[in-house]
Amino acid sequence: MSVYEGKSKRVYVKDDYIVVIEFKDDVTAMDGAVKAIAKDKGVMNAAVSAYLFNYLESRGIKTHFIDYDGYRCIIAKKLGIIPVEVIVRNYAYGSLLKRIPLYKPLQKLDPPLLEFHFKDDSIHDPLILPEDIIYTNLLKKNELDTVIEVSLKANDVLRELFTSKNLVLVDIKFEFGKDKNGNILLADEISGDTLRVLDENRNHLDKEIFRKTKDVELLIKAYRELCNRLGIEMKSIAAYG
């Protein structure tokens, strides 16, 4: 069984169609310059990802998700990952404010703003244009149109979900891949590591906590609250010790 390891996950390739994605407790910031271990982070991110992928599937959005082991792994379809990250911004925050300081912090963006980044840690995932994606053959025009359509629809669905929990979805990162038949599916994870979400007091329930404080205990507290708000019971943490 082949194993691929990243900063926050291990991917075990079972066969030509199935992978097992294990969520680690590692947490990083500043492009990996800051590293720590946050106990049970992987368990909660796996649970949140499984919950949100299931929710998106129930709303007609196709993803790579197949099943959840109840602990820190999800079972997913094997895809050829597209090296393009899509960030959907509902409010101005983070790198957008640094790039264009004309925005006001948490300025509402309606309609949402889409950003594309070339997925390559060695060059810090640079911002790219839709034309770059097409001209370099990362995606064909119709494929990029699909990615944009799915990203906006998934953002709308999740924004409504979080609103129903009295939470605000600030922004979210999506990744995509192609299956054996060339179908484009939502992939990777959807968790506190890949989105920013605020409670009614503007407290972060996401990785921004660690970026700002480097405090793993505050991060785990925020991730537990995110699970609680979504109605995800974390019995598996106690069960597995």
UniProtKB/TrEMBL annotation:
UniProt family annotation: Belongs to the SAICAR synthetase family.
Say which domain of life the source belongs to: Archaea
* Catalysed reaction, written as an equation: 5-amino-1-(5-phospho-D-ribosyl)imidazole-4-carboxylate + L-aspartate + ATP = (2S)-2-[5-amino-1-(5-phospho-beta-D-ribosyl)imidazole-4-carboxamido]succinate + ADP + phosphate + 2 H(+)
Where does this protein act, in terms of pathway? Purine metabolism; IMP biosynthesis via de novo pathway; 5-amino-1-(5-phospho-D-ribosyl)imidazole-4-carboxamide from 5-amino-1-(5-phospho-D-ribosyl)imidazole-4-carboxylate: step 1/2
Report the InterPro entries cross-referenced here: SAICAR_synt/ADE2_N, SAICAR_synt_PurC, SAICAR_synthetase, SAICAR_synthetase_CS
Q: Which residues form the SAICAR synthetase/ADE2 N-terminal domain?
A: 3-214
Database matches in HAMAP family: SAICAR_synth
Origin organism is Ignisphaera aggregans
**One Pfam short name:** SAICAR_synt
Sample GO molecular function, one term: phosphoribosylaminoimidazolesuccinocarboxamide synthase activity
Q: What is this protein called?
A: Phosphoribosylaminoimidazole-succinocarboxamide synthase
Q: Which UniProt keywords apply?
A: ATP-binding, Ligase, Nucleotide-binding, Purine biosynthesis
